Every structure is written in C-alpha cells, then in structure tokens.
C-alpha cells in the first residue's frame, strides 16, 4: 500500500465487525456514547490515486468512507483534515460514463466535488440519542453520510450512521423493556402494598378494639376489682402488640434507609436463648404445646454480637413456630457450626416445629417484606408479614443468614446462623444449662424501694410535664430544680458548676422555645459542663438517639416517660461520678442496660385516625397513670393545663398569621405532650397532625389541622374542669 494511504487501526472483516457490534449491543446502557460504537480511522491524502482508494473499499467491505488529509499543508502537529470521502459518493462518481478512465489513475483531488468538506462532527462523549438526532436533521441527500467523531485530544474517526441508528433502536428497546419491568414491579408492589395495608388494618384495629373496649369498662363504676385487673392486663397485652407492630415498621424503614445501627458486645448466648425461651413458654403453654431447648455441641461461653437484634430474631422465629403449630411442640437446637467455610465461627440456632408446613412456592417468597405464605395465612393466623423479612436482614447484619426447610403437614425448620466473633480464647461450655440458671436483671424497678440521692435539673417548657416529672423524682428523694427553656438551663447549670453542690444530672427536653435542647447541650459541653445529660424526646424514629448523643447527651428517654427505665438511666449515670444512689434491694446500676431501650419501653403513640374521633375526651386511667396514681398531682396538672391550652391556641393562630412555622411546630408539639399527659387522645392526635404539617410548611392542610385542634381543645376544656371537680370532691 502506498505511503499516502495511512492505516491508523487494523480493520476487521464485515462479519467480525458486525459480531463485535452485536456483542456491544448486548451490553448497552442508557448512558451509551458514540465513543463506545465501532468506527473507522482510515486516512488518505489528496494525492492518493483513486485506484488505491477503490482497492481500499474493495478490501474492506464494511468501510463506509475515508478521512481525506492534506499532507502539503505544513501544519505543525499533524496533517490538515480536508473532509470525508464516503464509499457511496466515491462509487456514485465512478459509475458515470468514462469516469473510470478519467479518474482511476488520477489523485482523488480531481474528485474534490464529491469530498464532503463540511462533514457532520460530534463529540466523543455525545450520547447516542443526541448524535442520531443530529445526523437525521441533515438534508435528505446527506442523511446517511458518515459522521465524524472527535475526541478531546484531537483524534477523529468515522462512524457509520446505520450503526448509530441501530444503537439508538436497541436503546429504545432497552428503555421499553425497562419501562415494562418497572410497570410490572409497580403493579406487583401495589398488590403487595394493598395486601399489607389490609393485614395492617386488621392487626391494628383488633388490639385497638380491645384497648378501647376495656378502657370503657374501667370507667364503669360497677366493674369489680377482678374485672378491672383483667381489663388492665388485656390493655397492656394489646398495647405491647401495637408497639411491636410499630417497632417492625421502624426497623424496616431503618434497614431500607441503611441507618440500622448494629453493635457488638460480649453476650452469653446460652443465657440469652434461655431468656427468650422463658418469654415464649407462656405462649406455648397457652396453646398446649411443648417448648424445649437442646444443645448439639459445646458452645462458647460468650460471643461478640448484638444481643437486642439476636433476641429479636429468636423471638420472631419461635413466635412464628408457636403461631403456626396446633399440636406437638417447638424445639430450639443450638450448636457451634465449625464445618462452614466462613471467615469466623458461626453459631447455629435451629427452630423446629410440628406445624402446618409450607410448599416450595410459599417458601420462595417467605422473606419478602409485606409477604406471608399466602393470603389465607394472614386471615387465619394474623400478622403483618414483616417479621421474617426483617429477621433475615438482621441475621445478615450479624454475619449470618436464615434458611428454611419445610414440608406441608410435617412442620418446618428455620436455621439462623450468626458470626461469633473471635472465640480463640473463649472457653467452650459443655453444659450451657449451668449458665442459663442465672436470673436475668429485672426489667422493672421497684420504685417503692428506690432512693435517689441526687440533685437534678429538669429542663422542660411544658408546665404539666414539669409537674409530673419533678413530682415523681422528688418522691424518690431527688432534689429537682426546673428550667423553662435551654437558655435558662445553661444559666442554672453553669452557675452551680463549680459550687459545692453542682447538679448531678440534667434532664433536657429537646423541643423548646427560646433555645432547644440540642443547642443548649452543645453550649454546655463547650463551656466545660461535664455532668451527664439525658435527652427527653417525643421522637422514636431512626437516628433520633444518634442525634441526641451527637449533640453531647449521654442517653435519651422517650415520652411518655417510662418511669422504671428513667430511674435506671439516672442511677447508672449518676453512679459514674458518685456512689450515693441507694436501693434497699441492692438494685445494680449496670451500664450495659443503657445501650438500648427495653422492648417494653413506651413510645410517643399516635392514635389511629379512624378511632381518634371516638376516643374519650379524657382517659382518666391514663391521666392518673401519668401522675403515678397521685390524684392530687393529676388535679394540679389539669388545673395548669386549662388556661395554657387557650393561650397556646391564641399563639398558634398568631403564628399562622405571621407564617412563623417553627413556632407553630413548637406549640403544636407542646400541646400534644400536654394532651398526652392528660390522656386526651383526640386533642393529642390532632396536635400531632398539625406538628407534622408545620414541618412541611403545608399552609392549607395545616390550617385545617389547626381547626381540628381548636375543636378538640374547646371540647376538652369542660371535660378537664369536670375532671378537676370530681377529684376535688373525692368522687
């Protein structure tokens, strides 16, 4: 080949080139650019004879054109590109009469009129759709001319328009397939969502019906003491069920958002398993089922894992086994699995039942969120379909997994594996039954036996919450000072910081006027305040605890306050700096109980919208419970609330006029907390909705929500006055 014909890249035959293109199209992505499409870099000089160009086109049947350069231009850094000579234009010219004799032995410069001196140029990073659109907008006579692709460093190559259009067509097919898949997934998700909502509605309404019904029974003065105790037990049991549903939903949201925190601490697996079996034995006994725990090998005395999540998984697996077993029993088998090719040892828990079993199809979708074996399962046994999906995710977070083996009519075996952490120096226990005999720490504190010898600062802007919490702590012997907002708290805490009697601990409400709890805590820490701070918050969503700790708090408590839990928190934190927290029963201040909220802890509940209007204006039982069954204290709280409710309504209305959303949110939050303290479910629900809408700055709906709040409060005020009068009269 003459020097004038430059081969910038080896060419492939048409069949091989097409095969390469097909391979490329198989892995297309929506972001495909023209630089990823096969092209041509053949160059010829103006002095190249037409016969040489003809031989080039004959040799490479898929060559769509050549780049024409001027070697005599004398440009520094390379030859000047004159234009593009396409195969179609070249052959069309040679088809004219006497063209072969006229041009074949002459340079292609003599064919200047068929050289495209203004070819279509696109950047190498140009998308396929954009490049195709540009090519198709050329005059009809030039639509199928090659396109010149220019890269950032000055290189150029030719792109066949047919290849470009084929790539665009394949991309459109890919887009349509993606749309179809998305539509099918959306329809499937919609069906799953509808089924989930139906199940969830049933799961929520059933315990709510029991709670409301037995609460009404408690208001009946003719109810006997035995019936009252049974009613309270039923309300507690159904309330715990509702709490578990909420916890499942929150856990799933944390997992999907990637914000679920997993801790690894030293845990006795035998003791933890024994505690779970003891809890679940009540359910098994109620159905007449046996429940046994067996060990298949020696197991480590301790492992490194998250005890809360492991307990949650085991409770779910055992609970399901008991739920779906009508006769026979359930067994929990535990052994150390050393035969697995895992980076660290695995502890295996097999939950085996003699229940209804499952088909292979049912097992295939068992671990999908909002899914159960089939619709009839939900109707017959209940449940939200979240437990196993959450449990498998948790197991994987713990370095293991959950698998299932089942046969219809013969029962099921769910196998949980978790990583143990390093156990090289941990003794293996041949008889774990000896370990599990240790009595676990009780969940509740005997408040009658507790003595708090501590000076506390309570920072709370709600007067009734101030009265409830301060009175409760003072009864336990604590000296309690009160601050109405974060600024006042800073002044009081720093004033006594270096005195002979500084505060031993601060209870800090988060949402307050003037200065909120987060800001106040940060300022205190920056000023060198080193005493413990417990955040008081009505939020129980993902990240709330972490946000409190990041602000400088040592722990947090969720409203409505669980008194036993709060006492434990105060005892443990105060004990860090002094040893004067006394308990006549010798109740231990174990620090590890502070790393997590107990499963029995209350959260800030939101009444179901369908039943909010039917809720009593005041739930006397709740109001008295919040006051520790102190009737006089409950009366004082109600008396304080009556004028404040009217003031808050006026202030919220004014904040709306000024579009002061932070104030609307803060006052709605305060009103919600006060309503909850009084068992005013309708007012609490309405205030909660207003608080959420204030966060979103949704003016229209927020105004509607405020009207609901105002109506609820106006109805509540006479009921509060009656409540005060009844207590004052001793009725």
Structure notes:
- This protein is an alpha/beta fold and 731 residues long.
- 48% of the residues lie in helices and 15% in strands.
- It is built from 23 helices and 23 strands.
- The strands form seven sheets. It has a five-stranded mixed sheet with strand order 9-12-13-15-14, with helices on one face. A five-stranded parallel sheet has the order 19-18-20-21-22, with helices on both faces.
- Helix 13 links the parallel strand 18 (455-459) and strand 19 (479-483).
- Helix 6 (161-219) packs antiparallel against helix 7 (225-257), helix 14 runs parallel beside helix 15 (517-526) and helix 21 runs antiparallel to helix 22.
- The chain is elongated.
- The chain starts with a strand and ends with a helix.
- Mean pLDDT is 78; it is low at 1-17, 375-382, 436-444 and 579-615.
Task: Please describe the topology of this protein.
Layout: E1 5-6, H1 14-26, E2 43-45, H2 50-59, E3 65-70, E4 80-86, H3 87-94, H4 99-103, E5 121-123, H5 128-136, E6 147-150, E7 156-159, H6 161-219, H7 225-257, E8 265-267, H8 269-286, E9 290-295, E10 299-300, E11 303-305, H9 307-323, E12 329-337, E13 346-353, H10 360-364, H11 375-381, H12 387-397, E14 401-407, E15 411-419, E16 428-429, E17 450-451, E18 455-459, H13 463-475, E19 479-483, H14 486-495, E20 505-509, H15 517-526, E21 533-537, H16 544-550, E22 555-558, H17 563-574, E23 582-583, H18 609-612, H19 620-626, H20 631-657, H21 661-677, H22 681-696, H23 699-729
Parallel strand pairs: 2-3, 5-6, 9-12, 18-19, 18-20, 20-21, 21-22
Antiparallel strand pairs: 1-2, 3-4, 6-7, 8-11, 10-16, 12-13, 13-15, 14-15, 17-23
Helix pairs in contact: 5-6, 6-7, 7-12, 8-9, 9-12, 13-20, 14-15, 20-21, 20-23, 21-22, 22-23
